[in-house]
Write a structure and sequence with these properties.
alpha/beta, 9 strands, four-stranded parallel beta sheet
């Protein structure tokens, strides 16, 4: 039986068809305060930006579930008690979802991002309480945009540990069962290398030196047996431009 978002009929966890595991999806852009670059926002005159704003993600049932998760999560993050309750509920749901799996994998955010320091802390607590599960998440909390779309959304600046969100993410990345990959900002750019985090990810239609090429495009848009995103922490990954 699926775990539901409290007081709703919406599923708490998402089930991306590409992946061999459950995830937690939030609304793209609305939960991505540090979105930046063409991968998030698209290029002038082209409809290519965030994959989570197209296709299956535009179905009403998907949008309703994401909105319910986001509303509940934001409300729970307002107090320490609420945060702890959110963590306990999520831990129980993921434990149930992975109980019968030989490989215990989870992707944090098939859509959306870590939208606040408290929310990142909540996920750090979840991961810490589930050492048997391997977690992977892409993220953009390593930078703040300072440019504009006209400037190709550059330059940007890498933050230091005085940034509260970055500090929480660094603490999460230190957990042995977590892989946090900083995402490239623009299509065609190499994956960023940010101290304290694992090898990043990029999106490009062409080969990028030093990057492992995601095989999903050649195998029915499915991870298949590949587990590089979860397990190969030092390997930069190139996804096909989406």
């Amino acid at each position: 039986m699926k775990t539901l978002v409290p007081d709703t009929r919406n599923s708490l966890l998402s089930e991306p068809s590409k992946m061999p595991c459950y995830s937690y999806g939030l609304p793209a852009h609305k939960s991505c305060p540090r979105a930046n670059g063409t991968i998030c926002n698209g290029r002038p005159g082209k409809k290519d930006g965030c994959y989570a704003g197209r296709g299956f993600y535009t179905m009403k049932s998907t949008e309703a579930a994401q909105a319910a998760r986001f509303a509940w999560t934001r409300e729970m993050m307002k107090t320490d008690e609420g945060l702890e309750q959110w963590v306990a509920y999520m831990v129980a749901a993921i434990r149930r979802a992975t109980a019968r799996q030989t490989e215990k994998l989870f992707r944090i955010h098939d859509s959306g991002d870590f939208f606040s320091p408290r929310y990142a802390r909540a996920w750090r607590m979840v991961c810490g309480q589930l050492p048997e599960v391997d977690f992977w998440a892409p993220f953009r909390g390593w930078q703040l945009p300072t440019g504009s779309a006209v400037d190709n959304l550059k330059p940007f600046r890498v933050l230091d540990e005085s940034d509260l969100l970055l500090a929480e993410l660094l603490a999460m990345a230190a957990l042995p069962n977590v892989t946090l990959r900083p995402s490239a900002l623009n299509f065609g750019e190499p994956a960023p290398e940010i101290p304290g985090f694992h090898a990043g990810s990029a999106a490009s239609n062409s080969h990028l030196d030093g990057h492992y090429e995601c095989p999903a495009q050649s195998q029915g848009n499915n991870c298949g047996s590949c587990r590089v995103c979860w397990h190969s922490k030092s390997t930069r990954v190139r996804y096909h431009e989406h």
